[in-house]
Design goal:
Shape: rod-shaped
Number of helices: 9
CATH class of the largest domain: Alpha Beta
Largest sheet: 5 strands, mixed
Helix content: 40-55%
CATH topology of the largest domain: D-Maltodextrin-Binding Protein, domain 2
Number of strands: 12
Strand content: 15-25%
CATH superfamily of the largest domain: Periplasmic binding protein-like II
Order of helices and strands: HHHEEHEHEHEEEEHEHEEEH
Structural class: alpha/beta
């Protein structure tokens, strides 16, 4: 004979009511059927669980211990069912998320903060790498989702969506004559030396920067190229160069730098944020992406 959840529920109801009639009514069953179920339970357990009186029943010491354990078993079963359903829906479990280095100071903290508020049972395991490396990790199955800046050269086997845009700004040394400006145009900086992003690391952004220079009517005096944001800001801090960066770079506590918005055509909504995943994603990917468009624009 099986120790079923229904049998445990019947025993707990009788243990609470200590009366067959009231327990049977609560369970929407007949009193004789409840009595037979409890007798069957005692045969399964192999000990007497109840002392039966003419008007009520009392738990034996073994019955009291069994009632407590039965409640724990039913609670554990309900928790197991709920957790399985959460994981299947993507609202719980673990998701492996990759991001490019420039997202680390602004986007990722907001993602984690919102994740804790809106999907508290979903844990993110984070990986930082270049856009190309993250896409390859997705193909190999070591990531579930990636946030990147540049589209991969081959994307037929990936699902890609734009979830946010950022504005271009210019990073200046604090001692620069224009560092106190509220906003600037590239034409204001024709005499400056520039550090630009490498086309190898972020080709889309590098091309967007050069397009803006062409629209401004001059080629930049390129002193250096950098692979990432920290490289760009290192050159700017040295006082040797200025650089085009994301508007959110202003949130960095980077000494010796002032970030000023650019007014040029093409500066607004110039830097895309892409979400990339495999065509048949982990359920948690879809759960996370339901909120991601707001996470990347909200404060923490």
């Amino acid at each position: 004979m099986d120790l079923t959840p229904r049998l445990l529920e019947q025993f707990i109801a009788l243990a609470d009511e200590k009366h067959y009639g009231r327990a049977a009514e609560q369970l929407t069953m007949s009193q004789p059927s409840l009595s037979q179920a409890i007798q069957r339970l005692e045969r399964i357990v192999g000990v007497r669980l109840l002392d039966r009186g003419s008007r009520s029943v009392e738990l034996t010491p073994a019955g009291a211990a069994f009632a407590a354990d039965a409640r724990s078993l039913l609670d554990a079963q309900e928790s197991a069912l709920a957790r399985a359903r959460q994981i299947a829906s993507g609202d719980a479990g673990e998701i492996r998320v990759g991001y490019v280095p420039s997202f680390g100071h602004w986007h990722v903290p907001r993602l984690l903060s919102a994740l804790a508020r809106q999907l508290p049972d979903l844990r993110a395991q984070l990986t930082q790498a270049s856009s190309m490396a993250l896409v390859e990790a997705l193909r190999l199955g070591s990531l579930d989702l990636a946030f990147i800046r540049s589209l991969p050269p081959r994307s037929e086997d990936m699902e890609i969506s734009e979830i946010s845009w950022e504005r271009f700004a210019v990073a200046l040394p604090e001692a620069h004559p224009l560092a106190g400006a509220a906003e600037l145009a590239l034409s204001d900086l024709q005499q400056d030396s520039w550090v630009l992003l490498s086309e190898r690391s972020v080709p889309d952004l590098a091309r967007a920067c050069m397009l803006m220079f062409r629209q401004a009517g001059y080629p930049p005096q390129v002193r250096a190229r950098a692979e990432d944001l920290s490289g760009l800001l290192g050159y700017v801090t040295s006082g040797l160069c200025v650089a085009i960066v994301s508007e959110h770079t202003a949130e960095l506590s980077f000494p010796g730098i002032r970030v000023v918005p650019l007014t040029d055509d093409g500066a607004k909504d110039a830097i895309p944020v892409y979400a990339v995943h495999r065509p048949t994603p982990h359920p948690a990917v879809l759960a996370l992406l339901r909120h991601a468009d707001t996470w990347f624009s909200e404060g923490p």
